[in-house]
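Methods — Computational structure assignment.
A single polypeptide chain was analysed. Its primary sequence is given first, followed by the predicted tertiary structure written as structure tokens.
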Amino acid sequence: MIYNFEEYSLDLDRQELRRGAELVDVEPQVLDLLHYLIRNRERVVSKDDLIADVWKGRIVSDSTLTSRITSARQAIGDSGDQQRLIRTIARKGLRFVGEVHESAAKQAPPVKRDVALPAAPDAGARSLPDKPSIAVLPFVNMSGDPEQEYFSDGITEDIITALSRFRWFLVIARSSTFVYKGQGVDVKQVGRDLGARYVLEGSVRKSGQRVRITAQLIEAISGGHIWAEQYDRELTDIFALQDEITARVAAAIQPKLWEAEDIRGSRRSVDDLDAWDLVARAMSHQWKLRTPRTITESRSMLVRLCDSGGCGS
């Protein structure tokens, strides 16, 4: 389903917001909020409605809610003063007032792959995008305590938000990955369903005042593990702990993805490398021990990128 309004289009299948042909950079949670407002445009949406749907009932401060609404307005060229598309109804809530036309999503063109997918994928399988893509599955609550669901869900959402700030890879939206919550999943199938090249999964286990958080990064096509880590912490300040784990996981994943993309690109001959492969292989050397050889290889890739016109004007 695609929602079209003014010069914008919100593609639910691809979880993308575009202005004309230009992709608008927007956080997954903001995209979910915008989708909810458009889907319920025939009525006024209350603060409780938004929290129940977008935040799944988690406790959310007024400042956080206001910040997300402001980001949603900015993404579609609106503001709190103009309220051209998202209107605030005093003491009641919000309503999307723009004229919306719905259309079916177009079939994505086939994408060239370096590694073949299984011969007979499911009918709903999606093509892998040109850029690397990652799906963060809901972290599993291993504590047996339902109240810990808020913590495990919060960790997952924060990691999705943190990773979405890196523009060189795509992050599958929360609304797409949370459908797997509470299910035993096949990582390869998740990759095919969501069009994700990589999958991050993890678990949270609490015992007394200590908590153990595990995370592992998996290549969806092969099912091979790329990275895994375990964090043992005292559960004192839950929000500070969430922030710390989120920062550590996000910082660890970025170089691992560069390295994985470099390995993937190395399966092809140097003459066949496209702009993205050149960037990936060049940047992967920046995360390695800096030696004359790695510096030379990195510079060579970037020179080839510029020679091919990939550096812009």
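Note: The first strand starts at residue 2 and ends at 5.
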